[in-house]
Amino acid sequence: MATPFLFPGQEYCHVREDHGQKKVEYAYCSESGRYFSCTAPTEKAAREECEYFLLRKERN
C-alpha cells in the first residue's frame, strides 16, 4: 500500500479486489497528527481498528 499524504483530520479509504477477495486500504491522520494505516476485509473493520489504535495511544 502506497502511503497517502494526509492533513490532520483527513482519511483515505480505497476498496480493491485482490485474487477475488475484497480488501480495504484505510489511512487516517488525527487532529493531533497521529497517523494510522491498515488493510482490512471491510471498511467497518478498518475504522474500528483505527478507533482502537487512537484510543490506545490516547491513554499512553
Q: What's the total helix number?
A: 1
Distance between the termini: 28 Å
What is the general shape?
A: globular
Helical residue percent? Answer: 25-40%
Largest sheet, if any? 3 strands, antiparallel
Instruction: Calculate the mean pLDDT score and round it.
Output: 90
Poorly predicted runs are: none
Q: What class would the helix/strand composition place it in?
A: alpha+beta
Summary keywords:
single chain; 3-stranded antiparallel beta sheet; alpha+beta; globular; 60 residues
Explained architecture:
This protein is of the alpha+beta class. Helix content is 28%, strand content 38%. It has one helix and three strands. It has one helix at 43-59, and strands at 11-18, 21-29, 35-40. A three-stranded antiparallel sheet has the order 1-2-3, with helices on one face. The termini are far apart.
